[in-house]
Write a structure and sequence with these properties.
alpha+beta; 5-stranded antiparallel beta sheet; 30% helix; globular; 4 helices; 5 strands
Length: 124
């Protein structure tokens, strides 16, 4: 009798998971990053917990400097929750980081409501 090792081929899994409408994908917000943190640093940190589809530090377009937060998209919700449980309120590159599920705007996906949007909604 031979022992077999179970493993996940992430290249095959990712191509299956990334289909539109798949509920397995989870986007995470990562706050209080060091100004020196790069996309690669986030990728490496979150890869410890599962397959990362993307990792992005947000850069201020006017200054070209980090806004000290970013977003990570993970292919599996359970792995993302594991990352949240293990990384939220921990030290990373000299900062205590915050890791939460990213929340989108309910009015327009991907866009935060402006003050005028909120005023218009309140007048209705």
């Amino acid at each position: 009798m031979t022992d077999t090792c179970n493993f996940i081929d992430h290249t095959r899994v990712a191509s299956r998971i990334v289909e539109p409408g798949n509920v397995g994908i989870m986007n995470l917000f990562v706050g209080n990053l060091s100004p020196d943190t790069t996309n690669g640093d986030l990728l490496k940190l979150f890869n410890e917990f599962g397959y990362v589809l993307s990792a992005r530090v947000i850069i201020d377009p006017t200054t070209g400097r980090s806004r000290q937060f970013g977003f990570v998209s993970m292919a599996d919700r359970f792995e993302a929750f594991d990352a949240i449980d293990n990384l939220d309120m921990t030290y990373f590159q000299g900062q205590i980081i915050s890791v939460k599920e990213a929340k989108g705007s309910k009015e327009t996906p991907g866009k935060s409501p402006t003050r005028n949007d909120r005023r218009a909604k309140n007048k209705q």
